[in-house]
Amino acid sequence: MSYSIAEAARRSGLSIDTLRYYERIDLLEPPARDAAGRRAYSEEDLAWLSFLTRLRTTGMPIRRMREYAKLRRRGLASAGRRKVILVEQRGAVAERIAELQACLEVLDYKIDNYDRIEQADAALHREASA
Amino acid sequence: MSYSIAEAARRSGLSIDTLRYYERIDLLEPPARDAAGRRAYSEEDLAWLSFLTRLRTTGMPIRRMREYAKLRRRGLASAGRRKVILVEQRGAVAERIAELQACLEVLDYKIDNYDRIEQADAALHREASA
DNA sequence: AGTTGACCTGGAGCGCGCTCCAGGTCGTAC
DNA sequence: GTACGACCTGGAGCGCGCTCCAGGTCAACT
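The joint structure predicted for all components is written out below.
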């Protein structure tokens, strides 16, 4: 089973342009082509894309993803170095989550303040119309 | 107490250029100036900067921060709309955290796989040298 | 008086990650 | 045979958030 670029885009959630772009910058091995020279993405291609989008979601820069992709092309021998990249990224993600949670607290605090302002305001109106 | 731009940069963690840039794009009210025309940031300026950097950390686009800043300049009357922005952002942050946590699981899974590869590899070496 | 260094302004430039475009080729449907 | 639509290529353009630069002013120090 293989997929046209439009199908691959739909399934990966990336745009057609982005798929071609990823190929150009060596994130993605050039997929097979059909008789007419059109890209035919395999299930494997899609699985790799799905992992790539995970990495992107974590905020990994494309430069680093290319590094990972390059290692992957070298096969098993590069497994150690690939693992290092993932472990590093895991750390970065954990940090980022902590950072966001701290921000969440600040937001909650501010929102609480606005709540109090609203209540004071409502009280004022009750008083005025009493 | 007021602070030179260098001090403000040090305390806010932003660069001097970024401070001037924020002022240019109306994120920051133009701070007071000393006799020589140099910026003199107040404690309030710094507090606002610190909140701004929180918002940036959550990934709020600058466009939206400007909106918030503009409302703030309009005083109490805009409190309701400012609250809406913060509540919305809180939602976005919560979503983002969830997304990152999902990615974390994928990373853990992949890293586990690499661990297994390493162990299998180590076993092979033991066998070979036995 | 001269040098240094922090600061000023307006504007250009940059790295990132796409996104869009022009101009062309195919295969299918009418 | 022609119109259409999906796809192709190479390359330009874009929005974001800074970052850097040239050329200048000013206060302090020697």
